[in-house]
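Following up on my earlier message about zinc ion. Here are the inputs again, as you asked, copied directly from the submission form:
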Amino acid sequence: MREALGEARAAEAAGEVPIGAVILFNNRIIARGQNRVLRDNDPTAHAEVVALRVAARAIGNYRLAGCTLVSTLEPCAMCAGAMIHARIDRLLFAADDLKAGAAGSVLDVLNHAALNHQMAIEHGLLAEESTALLREFFQRRR
Ligand SMILES: [Zn+2]
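Thanks, got it. Here's what our run produced:
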C-alpha cells in the first residue's frame, strides 16, 4: 500500500487527482498505475485500469489469476468491472469512496451474487493517509 500511495503522490505532482495502484504476483510488484485521465485525455485512465494494462502485458495474458490489486481508493464501477474481466484474485484498497465506490460503498459490482468470479477483498489499510491526500488535494483546488 505504501507503493500505491507513492503512485498517488506522483499523480498529484502531475496535477491529477491522487490515486495510485500496484499489482502483485507472487508477492512481487509486476505493475504500477496512477490516475492519468487529464494527461492522457482518457476517461478510462484510472490508476487501476492503467495498472491492469501493464500487468497483462507483463504476464502476457489478459487473465491475471493469482494477482492482487492494491489501490489507494475503493474502485469505481468501471475499474471493478475491469478487475472481474481480469480475474483478479484479491483486492486491497485503502479508503472507501462514498461517492462512487463499487466494492460496497455505493454499488457492489465486485462479488455480486450473480457473477461467477469471486474476489477476496480487504480494505482500510492506510485509509487515513489516502483520505488525507485526497482531501488536501481538493482543498488546494478550491
Ligand atoms: Zn475507476
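One observation from looking it over: The CA atoms of residues 27 and 62 lie 19 Å apart. Hope that helps, and feel free to reply on this thread.
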